[in-house]
């Protein structure tokens, strides 16, 4: 029996290349874009293992759990790593990055997460990119959680490697990702004898066999459903307009902050609104409360609320409202606040009213 999701013709190289152009348009980049057939950890690891090598030095900015992951990969690749760690409830500053690079002029690679969905912070990439460029280092940015939720301008900001995924603000699947690669980055990869080759992690394979070959022959069969979903995400964002999509995310973040402070025992985890990511809002629970238990009770009351408890060491103290993609709506915000109020034994009306008043797009 025929099935529209199963009986699909093979994806042509032409269509694959057209989707890559759509990603480039979304990023406003003239750099090469490679779509990778897996979750965004695939190109992130590929970038690090291609760009770092024995004898190189890296500044790894840690503002959340992914920074810790990057540090491990950088060390595995043989790089000497300087970790710049800031509290997870804040953002790193360009001045801190400048000081670290000035103290270690040998650094030639910088890794940074733009927005941390896990901790709810976002970093000032434009200012940081200017600093990194002045020191001459290669700049890798994890923009998985920021793309679609807030401005992202890799070319203007001097980002050499910009990795995105579809599963957050783009509202798509986790199984496909992409990276824009500058000419400087390609040159560095090519000069690295330890860069992955003939490997799923190899970006150079895509450069030499796909891009340099005129994008006429794919390296392997693409993940058909994920590619079609990515194409649909790009079409949906283009139809609504990227600016409108970003306004929805910003409005959702502002509405959650306005409502959450009226619920007993909750406060924004990221203290400064300027450092709070539009993709998701993290909330700190007060003494005597357990974030995992509060989240579980809230989801019993409202199973469709986009709520989750913090991970790892934050599981007891932080919870998250995941207002991204299709959930960047006032309805999702008020449903989440109502669920949390129920779990805390509070009247949701004041929080809902405050969130509604704060919602502006």
How many strands? Answer: 13
The CATH superfamily of the largest domain is identified as: Type I PLP-dependent aspartate aminotransferase-like (Major domain)
The span between the termini is: 46 Å
- Strand fraction equals 15-25%
What is the architecture of the largest domain at the second tier of CATH?
A: 3-Layer(aba) Sandwich
Q: Which class best fits the helix and strand makeup?
A: alpha/beta
Please sum up the structure shown:
With 361 residues, the protein is an alpha/beta fold. The chain has helices at residues 13-27, 41-51, 65-76, 94-103, 125-135, 183-190, 203-211, 224-240, 242-260, 291-301, 330-344, 349-358, and strands at 32-36, 57-62, 80-85, 109-113, 115-116, 121-122, 138-142, 161-165, 177-181, 266-268, 281-285, 307-309, 318-321.
Model description:
It is a single chain. This protein has 361 residues and is α/β, with parallel strands linked by helices. The protein has two domains: 227 residues, Aspartate Aminotransferase, domain 2 (3-Layer(aba) Sandwich), CATH 3.40.640; 117 residues, Aspartate Aminotransferase, domain 1 (Alpha-Beta Complex). The protein contains twelve helices and 13 strands. The protein has a seven-stranded mixed β-sheet with strand order 1-9-8-7-4-2-3, with helices on both faces. Strands 10-11-13-12 form a four-stranded antiparallel β-sheet. Helix 3 links the parallel strand 2 and strand 3. Helix 4 packs parallel to helix 5, helix 9 packs parallel to helix 11 and helix 10 crosses helix 11. The longest helix is centred in the last third of the chain and has 19 residues. It is globular.
């Amino acid at each position: 029996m025929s099935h529209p999701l199963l009986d699909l013709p093979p994806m042509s190289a032409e269509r694959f290349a057209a989707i890559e152009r759509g990603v480039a348009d979304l990023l406003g980049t003239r750099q090469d874009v490679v779509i990778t057939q897996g979750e965004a950890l695939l190109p992130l690891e590929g970038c690090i293992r291609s760009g770092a090598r024995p004898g190189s030095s890296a500044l790894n900015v840690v503002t959340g759990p992914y920074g810790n992951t990057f540090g491990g990969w950088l060390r595995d690749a043989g790089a000497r790593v300087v970790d710049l760690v800031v509290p997870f409830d804040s953002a790193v500053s360009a001045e801190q990055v400048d000081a670290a690079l000035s103290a270690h002029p040998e650094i030639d690679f910088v890794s940074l997460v733009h927005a941390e969905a896990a901790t709810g912070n976002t970093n000032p990439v434009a200012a940081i990119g200017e600093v990194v460029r002045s020191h001459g280092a290669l700049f890798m940015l994890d923009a998985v959680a920021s793309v679609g939720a807030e401005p992202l301008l890799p070319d203007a900001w001097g980002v050499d490697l910009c990795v995105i995924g579809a599963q957050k603000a783009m509202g798509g699947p986790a199984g496909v990702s992409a990276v824009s690669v500058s000419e400087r980055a390609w040159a560095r990869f090519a000069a690295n004898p330890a860069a992955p080759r003939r490997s799923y992690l190899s970006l150079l394979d895509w450069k030499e066999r796909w891009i340099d070959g005129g994008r006429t022959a794919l390296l392997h069969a693409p993940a058909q459903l994920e590619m079609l979903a990515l194409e649909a995400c790009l079409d949906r964002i283009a139809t609504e307009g990227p600016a409108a999509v970003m306004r929805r995310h910003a409005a959702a973040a502002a509405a959650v902050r306005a409502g959450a402070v009226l619920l007993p025992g909750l406060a924004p985890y990221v203290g400064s609104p300027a450092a709070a990511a539009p993709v998701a809002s993290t909330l700190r629970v007060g003494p005597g409360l357990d974030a995992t238990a509060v989240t579980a009770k809230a989801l019993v009351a409202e199973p469709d609320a986009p709520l989750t408890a913090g991970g790892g060491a934050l599981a007891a103290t932080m919870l998250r409202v995941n207002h991204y993609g299709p959930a960047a709506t006032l309805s999702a915000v008020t449903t989440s606040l109502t669920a949390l109020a129920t779990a805390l034994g509070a009247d949701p009306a004041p929080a809902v009213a405050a969130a509604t008043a704060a919602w502006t797009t």
